[in-house]
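Chapter review: from sequence to fold.
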Amino acid sequence: MRTYLQDVRYSCRLLLQRPGFTAVLVLTLGIGIGATTAIFGVVHAALLRPLPYSDPDRLMVSQSWRGPNQLGVSWLDYADWKERTKSFEELVCYFESEVHVAFKDGGGEKLGASTATRNLFGALRVEPLLGRVFLPQEAMPGAAPVAILSHDLWSKHFGSDPKILGRQVLVEGGSHVVVGVMPPGFKFPSKSDLWTPLEPLEGGNPRSLRGLNVFGRLKPDGSLKQAREQAKADMDRLAGQLAAEYPESNEGVRMSLIPLSEFWVKDLRPSVLLLLGACCFLLLIACSNVANLLLARATSRQREMSVRTALGASRSRIVRQLLTESVVLSLFGGLAGLLIASWGTQVLARVIADSRSLQVPYWVDLGLDGTVLAFAVGVSVLVGLLFGLAPALPAVRVNLLENLKEGTRGSTGGKSGRLRHLFAVAEVALALTLLVGAGLLGKSLVQLWQVDPGFSPDRLLTLKVRLPFYDATDRPGRAALFQEVHRRLEALPGVVAAGANSSLPLTGEEVWTRLDFAAEGQSQEQIDLNPQTNLQRISPSYFQAMKIPLLQGRFFDNRTTVPGAPKEVIVNKGLAELLWPGQNPLGRRLNLGKRTLAAEEKAWSTVVGVVGDVKHRAVSSDTDLDVYVSFFQSPSFDALTLVMRTRGEPTGIAAAARSAVSSVSPELLVEDVQTMEQIVDKSLWHARLWGLLFGTFSVVALLLAAVGIYGVMSYNVSQRTREIGLRAALGADPRAVARLILGQGLKMAGVGIALGLLGALTLSRFLSSLLYQVNALDPATYLVNALALGLIAAVATWIPMNRALRIDPVIALKNE
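The token string follows.
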């Protein structure tokens, strides 16, 4: 142990003797280790860390599908699953929403909430910190409303009052009795702060209305694999039974099971693993650079190694000393990497928190915990041993007589020189692979920016108006209230047009209504094949405000603001072409919510117009099949999003818009005031984030590769000073010397570029899912990046070459 400590102290002294050299190595390693550690922290938090529940592997999510389309679950299907399944201990049904909670001081806040069946907490094996879970009678129609609070809500707004149980809180204007407080950190399913019981929903809710989520806990019988296989067979059997019993709503509906942990991260997994791979590439480039520098230093220390050998040091002792030096250096790099990783994870956490299109489960913590710290230490030691082998192995084969005769002069040849060239080639190959990936993602982002979303986002201000305290039965009163808000906002100075929608495009957090439908004139077989349509509740002037083009017919007029008026609908181009290809859709009728032609006359709605397709879910997604109805004919929401097209800068009327809403009723809340351009920009955060990360990694890799080539060529030139001076003294043509040096550098770069192109072709298979309207084998991207890297390699070679051509033969031979 004393000998090891001596090696460590000696290594530290050597590093301190050359602070500039050490700083470069530590920073290079810190960048590679830091980036890898930061992304591993994301992988560990999202993909590897088990869910914070008892026996989490037995928690499974059940989903309904028709063809490639996910449908959600209807209440009646859930009730049948729960009654007939033999594979689950518990089956839970829930949905998420945002609610307004009023506090004692008169203030209020919009919070995440979940409405769930009473067995939610039992299925998760989580007990309240205070109070109890829901009772059976509290989930029955007409029962007194109750609520369970999160620990954050309890401590932040109720001062952690232990007497909170039994107190009343106003949720959406209704008084709820607090019956429990959950333990710290619990926010299931995503970021909920309040839970209320889900009442039976049979009345007025057909099986075709699918908007609920279901998960369950498998029975403990048998192995996990057997339990999952049995559950899958059980649900397949139930799907067949329900399709036979209820063909109108369940024909073609299948069910799938997925572990709860996979359900939350299935869309995130490919991207995160790809980023981790990119970081590993960056780390390899950093290691190659450090190994090259240490090889150069080891060459200059050959005399030292020979003297130590001559004095009796064993070769294993010398190798151990060199490995200790590299591990100590790597640990310093690991410390720098932890600082970089800490900063990087904080930035990632802020980006994800600011994104409203990504709901990250509450248990995903991007902090640097013990596992991530252990990973950083392990990577640092492993990296130190790997790049330490490069200078250590040649030291085993020192030629005592030769080295003691030559003094400090090294050689560019031999295995040491070949290793340096090999590392430089590897750096170029890895850098080009990352550059091509970043280029493809950047090109994809440009394509996304050029997509026509179906409306004009410029000079549009949006805001959500919420009525938290309302009588759910007073729909006419609610319609009149929102109509007045709409009228006053439309009358504001500077407003060209105003409109309203229950679900604004590209706002991923909005709840959508997906409906089955039947079109007049279809056969029952055709109706069974109909996909679901997206129902949009709008004001008559919404299309004008958004500049959504009218292709046929007319917009809604003021008649649709009257409850009980004949039902009219406007469809988008995609739905019209699907149902009536080459025909006039005007005057055709739709039965919304059911897959049948046998409906009452009042259930039918007449098509009065056709509008252009709109990107509702995401700019990169396909357009949906949309049906627009008048919000004021069926004001079933407690909130409405309004859009105002302005003559000037839209944010300039934000204060006036708030005042106009407050003047209608002080109970109305104004939320989410932002421009439509900001909404479009936020919808592209995913593509921007991956492009930014890949771009950053590739730029750093490019710089490291350029430094690597420059270092190798500069060292080669310095070691060949005597040779170059002798050539010049003998009358060698300077251009021949230039070709010699430049050719050596370009040869390394050329081999690296060839290998990098092969690596990029492999990477393209994994990148294709992140690209939009860009071929993963786009030849222009490959060619441009290869030429750019070749040019940079040429510059990195030209600098030492130019220095070599200016060597004075007399001085060179005298110094030697």
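Two observations follow directly from the output. Residues 171 and 801 are 75 Å apart (CA to CA). The longest strand covers residues 88-102.
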